[in-house]
Amino acid sequence: MLKKELRLKYKALRKALSENDIESMSLEIANQALSLPIWDKTYFHIFLPIEPQKEINTEYLLHILAGKDKEIILSKSDFETRKMTHFLLTENTKIVKNDYQIPEPVSGIAVPSKQIEVVFVPLLAYDKLGNRVGYGKGFYDQFLSECSPETLKIGLSFFEPEEQIRDVFENDIRLDYCVSPRTIFKFILT
């Protein structure tokens, strides 16, 4: 399928999810993530969910990261430049929803993209090759291109992968893993 078709399909599938579905599947995803080979890393980037879009509740993952004494990084989006600025999450971090209902840190201790070792990536859909479909603004492709080549990119999804996304671009950055409620998909990048 094409990205445009996948966006429509997966927005509709998400819309059909109840609050209980979202909470139980988000918890299952967090539990699955415990099996990932990432826990020797220190700097973890995570997104906070856009609730009206029925995104995965990453609060469960946040608790795991905090419990393992990991450095947690959140981003703030600039919709004019389509770039993200990354900040260390501390007890003093103030979170505010922007005009798009994205919870973001107001400010804080900046962290360069190259320092981030693991990125939990939001997505609408993905395929069996690790290609992903987001909302189409390019924020994450830009951000991931600034990260170290060793940075692990981990998608989080309520759903299983599509066979293939047909309109993948050269600059699209593939995932290393994707965690669903039932399994972890590992992508062999060639």
Automatic annotation (TrEMBL):
Pfam families the UniProt entry points to: 5-FTHF_cyc-lig
First and last residue of the signal peptide: none
EC assignment: 6.3.3.2
UniProt catalytic activity: (6S)-5-formyl-5,6,7,8-tetrahydrofolate + ATP = (6R)-5,10-methenyltetrahydrofolate + ADP + phosphate
Residues where ATP binds: K3, K4, E5, L6, R7, R132, V133, G134, Y135, G136, K137, G138, F139, Y140
Binding locations of substrate: I50, E55
An MF annotation (GO) of this entry: ATP binding
Cofactor: Mg(2+)
InterPro entries listed in its UniProt record: FTHF_cligase (IPR002698), FTHF_cligase-like_sf (IPR024185), NagB/RpiA_transferase-like (IPR037171)
UniProt keyword annotations, A-Z: ATP-binding, Ligase, Magnesium, Metal-binding, Nucleotide-binding
Biological process per Gene Ontology, one example term: folic acid-containing compound biosynthetic process
Family stated for the protein in its record: Belongs to the 5-formyltetrahydrofolate cyclo-ligase family.
Family matches, as PANTHER family: ATPASE INHIBITOR/5-FORMYLTETRAHYDROFOLATE CYCLO-LIGASE, CHROMOSOME UNDETERMINED SCAFFOLD_24, WHOLE GENOME SHOTGUN SEQUENCE
Stated name of the protein: 5-formyltetrahydrofolate cyclo-ligase
Top-level taxonomy: Bacteria, Pseudomonadati, Bacteroidota, Flavobacteriia, Flavobacteriales
